[in-house]
Automatic annotation (TrEMBL):
<keyword id="KW-0653">Protein transport</keyword>
<dbReference type="InterPro" id="IPR036390">
    <property type="entry name" value="WH_DNA-bd_sf"/>
</dbReference>
<dbReference type="GO" id="GO:0005198">
    <property type="term" value="F:structural molecule activity"/>
</dbReference>
<dbReference type="GO" id="GO:0042803">
    <property type="term" value="F:protein homodimerization activity"/>
</dbReference>
<dbReference type="InterPro" id="IPR036388">
    <property type="entry name" value="WH-like_DNA-bd_sf"/>
</dbReference>
<dbReference type="GO" id="GO:0016236">
    <property type="term" value="P:macroautophagy"/>
</dbReference>
<protein>
    <recommendedName>
        <fullName>Vacuolar protein-sorting-associated protein 25</fullName>
    </recommendedName>
</protein>
<dbReference type="Pfam" id="PF05871">
    <property type="entry name" value="ESCRT-II"/>
</dbReference>
<dbReference type="InterPro" id="IPR008570">
    <property type="entry name" value="ESCRT-II_cplx_Vps25-sub"/>
</dbReference>
<comment type="similarity">
    <text>Belongs to the VPS25 family.</text>
</comment>
<dbReference type="GO" id="GO:0043328">
    <property type="term" value="P:protein transport to vacuole involved in ubiquitin-dependent protein catabolic process via the multivesicular body sorting pathway"/>
</dbReference>
<keyword id="KW-0813">Transport</keyword>
<dbReference type="GO" id="GO:0000814">
    <property type="term" value="C:ESCRT II complex"/>
</dbReference>
<dbReference type="InterPro" id="IPR014041">
    <property type="entry name" value="ESCRT-II_cplx_Vps25-sub_N"/>
</dbReference>
């Protein structure tokens, strides 16, 4: 998932993907096997389910805390402390196009910024219908 910058895994879609289904040799991973793998990854904090049915999950190739630190380091290095950035600017903006967090799932971005908020390094805000963050 890291190579493809994928942050969310849909179990049904994953089972049909080349990662788990090799059509050339007619072999695929069973749904039960994938669930066992994801259960193990969940126990290690590498995935977090987005729903009670466990049909979708975040794949943490970086934890929300690690993403938060990476984003805060960017804000510090680029002079964005004490300024407001929209979520859109952070994941789709020109200033962040070359960063590792460019294209980050917005819900995962929110989780990551909440870790900064708990540390007193950011404040999540909503203005004019847009979500944003002020970095400290």
């Amino acid at each position: 998932h890291r190579a493809h910058k994928a942050y969310v895994l849909d179990v049904a879609e994953a089972l049909a993907s080349p990662l788990f289904h090799n059509k050339d040799i007619s072999r695929k991973l069973s749904a039960d096997s994938l669930k066992e793998i994801l259960k193990y990854m969940s126990s290690r904090g590498q995935v977090a389910w987005t729903d009670k049915q466990q049909s979708r999950c975040y794949v943490y190739w970086r934890s929300p805390e690690e993403w938060g630190k990476l984003i805060h380091d960017w804000a510090d290095a680029t002079g964005h402390l004490n300024t407001v950035c929209t979520f859109y600017e952070l994941v789709q903006g020109d200033d962040t196009a070359d960063t590792e967090f460019a294209g980050l799932d917005v819900d995962l971005l929110r989780l990551s910024l909440q870790t900064l908020e708990k540390q007193g390094k950011a404040e999540l805000i909503c203005f004019d219908g847009s979500d944003g963050v002020k970095f400290f």
